[in-house]
Amino acid sequence: MPDSLISAPSSEFLDKLTAIVGEKGIVSDPQARAFHETDWRGFVLGRAAAVVKPGSVEEVSAVVALCDQHGVKIVPQGGLTGLMGAGVPVRDGDEIVLSLARMNRIIEVNPTAYTMTVEAGVVLQTIQETAATHDRYFPISLGAQGSCMIGGNLSTNAGGATVLHYGNTRSMVLGLEVVLPDGRVWDGLRSLKKDNTGYDLKDLFVGAEGTLGVITKAVLKIFPKPKDVATAWLAVPDPKAALELLSGARIAADDNVTSCELMHQLGLDGIYKHIPGTQPPLQDRHTWQILMEWSSTRPIPPDGASGMQPRMEAYLADCMEKGLVQDAVIAQNEAQAGAFWKIREAHAEAGRHDDPACSFDISVAVEKIPSFIEACNAACEKAVPGLRPRPMGHMGDGNLHYTFSAPAGIKDRAGFAPMVKVLDRIVHDMVSEADGSISAEHGIGSVKLLELEHYRSQTELDVMRAIKKALDPKGIMNPGKVIRVDPDEPVRDGSTIR
Ligand SMILES: Cc1cc2nc3c(=O)[nH]c(=O)nc-3n(C[C@H](O)[C@H](O)[C@H](O)COP(=O)(O)OP(=O)(O)OC[C@H]3O[C@@H](n4cnc5c(N)ncnc54)[C@H](O)[C@@H]3O)c2cc1C
């Protein structure tokens, strides 16, 4: 970022900041600060002028108002597991990080109304566990659930493994409390299912990646806890068979298919190599494998016969006869189901230890997945000989984490970067032609900002810029992420940090 754009906050500002949050709300240890400046993949994109951890909405409001007065920019931060470089500073020294980590209270659980009210810094897994202690269920589930926070899940509109049945994080929200970019608090903390009083403001902040305000609290929906769950690991001949399998499963399970995850043998190889405690559920190697889960909130019937597992067994036997399934194992207990899920959720972590690779988080209509994979693999392998595609992802949602390992011989990310640039255009052009999305669930952040500008229509960009300008006229909320108001503002080339 050119120095001309950067002006570090004054010492007067920093003194006032400390006065608002107190010593325990300022992170000064250099190692602890470095954590807040480094994204999950280990990239440091910029440096923060300060890292603050307010303890209440009043403190968040005062910090944001102070930043508004001094023109200091703010990067809201949750668990720092986002994959688009959105939760870290991208400039050097004129942004503060505002971490919600200290605002981690569960305010209320209402099992009768099926709601939970939480502060933004509550870790996702804590929300799941709290719901379970009330015989309830919070369905958002993803590999980072032990460290990501609900404010981050809301701000990225995270998806994960259960969207097929329950929807994404946006569908979990009844109300929000948000600190606006001038420091005012918008109290939209309602638990109404029906509320047609004008524009739906909460929907603006969900998925905004911290560019429109700071989410401080949320009223979430919770659900009856599943009591009868069947989990299977399958081999299928190709994605077309996987699609047919899924389509029939929805009827066979009374529309209780809660997850359908597609995996590729090359991706699984990396997991078994790098992640301790994982081993292949099936004896033979199969290019395409599926993790499928059916779950019902009805208790397992006493005779067992009409439960999820026997029905799944019958359905898979039928699919095997038709050649849609080549091999299958159904988990016999929770521990075995947990082992299957551990493998599925380890893809991102294994990717950190593997050869250079790049990954595209894309979606197309579910029925286009087989033809899309075939065409995209062919086009990318032609452009980059030796490339090793291993698409996987939330197949039930049409969402692929389309991953490519670099050709053998390319040893580092820098060597792969020029090829990633070529792949960016090929993959995203093909997604666009298929009426798909260049970001299914990870967001835009700084990594895909230029891609968003390239693929969204002028009308859509105009509306987004108008919203950003109306809510954040000084441009202090998470600059360099999602959308540029000034098209001349320099940005990072995402292909170098993907
Ligand atoms: C192993 C792994 C698996 C993953 N699996 C999935 C998956 O299956 N599905 C999926 O959708 N994503 C997945 N992700 C990415 C996902 O987006 C994040 O894990 C999660 O939703 C981000 O939450 P966080 O608290 O870590 O947010 P951060 O990374 O801290 O921030 C993400 C964005 O939200 C903003 N933000 C954070 N808190 C607030 C707030 N309170 N108010 C306003 N803005 C805020 C930040 O500024 C940033 O723009 C995965 C990530 C990892 C590392």
Could you explain the architecture of this structure?
The strands form five sheets. A five-stranded antiparallel beta sheet has the order 5-6-10-8-9. A four-stranded mixed beta sheet has the order 1-2-4-3. A four-stranded antiparallel beta sheet has the order 13-14-12-15, sandwiched between helices. Helix 1 packs antiparallel against helix 3, helix 9 (265-274) crosses helix 12 and helix 13 packs across helix 14. The protein has 16 helices and 19 strands. The two termini are 18 Å apart. The protein is an alpha+beta fold and 498 residues long. It folds into five domains: 3-99, Uridine Diphospho-n-acetylenolpyruvylglucosamine Reductase, domain 2; 106-224, 2-Layer Sandwich (Uridine Diphospho-n-acetylenolpyruvylglucosamine Reductase, domain 3); 228-347, Alpha-Beta Plaits (2-Layer Sandwich), CATH 3.30.70; 355-433, Alpha-Beta Plaits; 449-496, no CATH class. Flavin-adenine dinucleotide binds at residues 40, 75-83, 86-87, 100, 120, 142-144, 148-149, 151-153, 155-156, 158-160, 209-210, 214-215, 348-349, 441-442, 478, 481.
Q: What ligand molecules are bound, each kind once?
A: flavin-adenine dinucleotide
Tell me about the largest β-sheet. 5 strands, antiparallel
Oligomerization? single chain
How many DSSP H or I helices?
A: 16
Identify the notable features of this structure and list them briefly.
Uridine Diphospho-n-acetylenolpyruvylglucosamine Reductase, domain 2, Alpha-Beta Plaits, 5 domains, four-stranded mixed β-sheet, globular, disordered N terminus, binds flavin-adenine dinucleotide
